[in-house]
Design a protein that fits this description.
Elements: H1 5-21, E1 35-38, H2 51-63, H3 71-88, H4 91-100, H5 104-113, H6 119-134, H7 138-166, H8 192-207, H9 211-230, H10 236-260, E2 266-274, E3 277-285
Antiparallel strand pairs: 1-2, 2-3
Length: 286
């Protein structure tokens, strides 16, 4: 029986997810039961709003963000625009080079990678949420919710709107990298699949301490960018723009929720008795 590459990769990621996102266990004395005093502040689950309400709130905040941008934010925006502009200077050269080395093998690989920038990314977030719910892993659930929200905002709203406004022709149409017809049926800029892949990668990377998982999601997002160029669907600047949009929205969503979420403080006291000595060891987690 043959296994599709993307299915194998998804299975490996899901198998590793609970360990990668699991909270660090607290070491306890083997013979003494700890005395735990929990703070009266509400937990994240107790303060959790419905997903739809949260998305609406974040959308309102995002729409009003330009009016509250600081100099540092404008600098980041300028750097992003500069990166897209730099990529645009090599659009034709890269497109020609990649197409010159295109083959049936590269197309097969590109088609195997492609779901990671679309339904595969959303499906992975959905399964991640179910795994977190079944295993009572709040971080897995939070990762999935942030990933889905970032995908909806970046890949479902921002990038589609820019596609319509910019109206750039795709490379396969043979019109060149400078063919722009706003509000037409040309939707090359930015890349929607790169947006999705980098939004999810940004969220997952922010939620895990696993270097292997971080490397995997960022590498997979980069591979999505390559496959869009191999299949001659996007210019390099389309990929860069989509990647920046997805990564920035993912980062913003995670930062906003981490800042807004109330903290839970646990204080643990463990009696310790040894020959000729006694005492109490403590641990504070937040």
């Amino acid at each position: 029986m043959k296994h599709r590459p993307q299915a194998v990769a998804l299975s490996l990621l899901l198998a590793a997810a609970p360990a990668a996102f699991a909270a660090k266990p607290t070491t306890q004395h083997p013979t003494h039961k700890p005395l735990v005093f929990k703070s009266a502040r509400p937990t994240q689950d107790e303060a959790h709003e419905s997903f739809a309400r949260r998305v609406r709130s974040d959308l309102a905040a995002l729409l009003s963000r330009p009016a509250h941008m600081r100099p540092r934010d404008w600098e980041r925006l300028g750097m992003g625009v500069a990166a897209v502009g730099a990529a645009a200077t090599v659009d034709n050269e890269l497109q020609t080079r990649i197409q010159r080395h295109r083959s049936s093998s590269s197309d097969n690989l590109a088609n195997a990678i492609r779901p990671a920038g679309g339904v595969g990314a959303l499906g992975a977030m959905g399964i991640t949420w179910l795994v977190g719910e079944a295993g009572h892993n709040a971080n897995l659930k939070s990762t999935a919710e942030d990933g889905l929200e970032a995908s909806l905002i970046a890949g479902g709203l921002i990038t589609p709107a820019l596609k319509i406004i910019v109206g750039r022709a795709r490379p396969a149409e043979g019109l060149g990298a400078s063919s722009f017809h706003p509000f037409s049926h040309d939707y090359s800029f930015p890349s929607g699949e790169a947006t999705e892949a980098f939004a999810v990668a940004s969220v997952v990377s922010a939620h895990t301490h696993s270097l292997l998982l971080k490397s995997t999601v960022w590498g997979l997002a980069g591979a999505v960018g390559w496959e869009r160029m191999d299949l001659n669907r996007h210019w390099s600047s389309d990929i860069v723009a989509g990647a920046l949009i997805g990564a920035e929205v993912g980062h913003w969503v995670v930062a906003r929720h981490k800042h807004a979420a109330p903290r839970r403080v646990d204080v643990m006291l463990v009696p310790t008795v040894a020959p000729g000595a006694w005492g109490v060891s403590g641990d504070i987690a937040w």
